[in-house]
Design a protein that fits this description.
The protein is of the alpha+beta class. It is about 15% helix and about 40% strand. It is built from six helices and 20 strands. An eight-stranded antiparallel beta sheet has the order 12-13-19-18-14-10-11-15. β18 and β19 form a beta hairpin. α1 (about 5-10) runs antiparallel to α2. The radius of gyration is 20 Å and the shape is globular. The two termini are about 15 Å apart.
């Protein structure tokens, strides 16, 4: 590591060197809440309603909302709070730890459903001091432009730090055809309606082409203790399908598609591709849910948060149960 970069790491105020920390989702105490706001008034708790389905640019997917006509809403504002806010109340500065402004980029109609996609325009947070954030942005600009790395430029880097203050579930996608398989992780996904699920993949990647070719996949949520194995599958995004023996599958198969399930699966969804569009580096894939099955009643689903938010939790004496590969820095 360059001398100047070491200095920046000393000054960035971050407790954890590891940028993304894995957690068991059901055991994450004192989470943040995300509220849709209008004219500085809280109008809807959307913590569990929206899905982050892209990071370059930031893309959110939302279902139709009774409280807001998203057909005519060109922009939305989301405030992140450490406490539940009363609907209809004014947003106090002390209750707002972060805020995102997003613009609508697409309305997707499918049957009786409408799905609304928004792209991040700007974000601000108070997880760290202004000086610490300046140091982090400087380090990002000088040292994160690497081959094969998704470079999050300018305020986009701040937006992503905010998004990962809400735990993002890391799932495994299984594709299979002609007795050849592939398994790779994703944390950019979410169920948008009772019948539909959205996943994004890099449109230039082999994984995306494999999903488009097979059109039917299994998305599995995994036990958090299995995080090292899940991360090791990241290289499979650029790998061709292989024989079943190359993967750590369990003996169980999915109900409809008969695809093998990864070991330590807690629940899974069988999905069929219905529609897609390209935005930024992403191909946004819309699936119909064929089935949703529970394998285990454990509340230890693998998810992750950003180290900036984790540092804020540490400073506020909030409990942590992170899986880290490195010692705090």
């Amino acid at each position: 590591m360059a001398f100047f970069q070491k200095i920046l790491h000393k000054l960035n105020g971050i407790r954890y060197r590891q940028e993304y920390l894995c957690i068991p989702l059901g055991q994450h105490a004192h989470p943040l809440y995300a509220f849709l706001v209008s004219d500085n008034i809280a109008i809807k708790d959307i913590t569990t309603l929206y899905s982050m389905v892209g990071i370059c640019p930031l893309i959110f997917a939302l279902p139709a909302l009774d409280e807001l006509d998203l057909d005519v809403q060109d922009k939305i504002n989301i405030v992140y709070s450490a406490i539940p806010l009363k609907i209809g109340s004014a947003i106090l500065t002390k209750n707002s730890v972060a805020e995102l402004c997003l613009k609508r980029i697409k309305i997707q109609r499918i049957g009786q459903y409408s799905i609304y996609y928004f792209e991040g325009e700007r974000g601000r947070h108070s997880f760290l001091s202004f000086f610490n954030q300046f140091v982090i942005r400087l380090n990002n600009r000088l040292y994160n432009k690497k081959k094969g790395n998704i470079f999050l430029e300018g305020n986009l880097y701040t937006q992503i730090q905010i998004v990962y203050s809400i735990p993002q579930v890391i799932s495994l996608i299984t594709v299979g055809s002609d007795n050849l398989y592939n398994v790779f992780p994703t944390d950019q996904h979410g169920q948008i309606t009772d019948e539909h699920y959205v996943i994004t993949l890099r449109h230039a990647g082999k994984a995306c082409k494999q999903v488009e070719a097979t059109k039917r996949i299994v998305l599995s949520n995994i036990e958090a203790s299995y995080y090292k194995e899940v991360y090791s599958f990241g290289k499979n995004h650029m790998q061709p399908p292989k024989e079943k023996s190359n993967f750590d599958f369990s003996e169980t198969q999915s109900q409809i598609l008969n695809l093998p399930l990864p070991r330590c699966t807690i629940e899974y969804r069988e999905l069929e591709l219905q529609d897609f569009f390209i935005h930024g580096i992403h191909k946004v894939l819309l699936f119909k849910i064929l089935s949703h099955q529970t394998v285990s009643d454990k509340n230890t689903t693998l998810a992750c948060i950003n180290n900036v938010y984790a540092t804020w939790r540490y400073k506020n004496n909030l409990p942590n149960n992170y899986f880290v590969n490195e010692l705090p820095g």
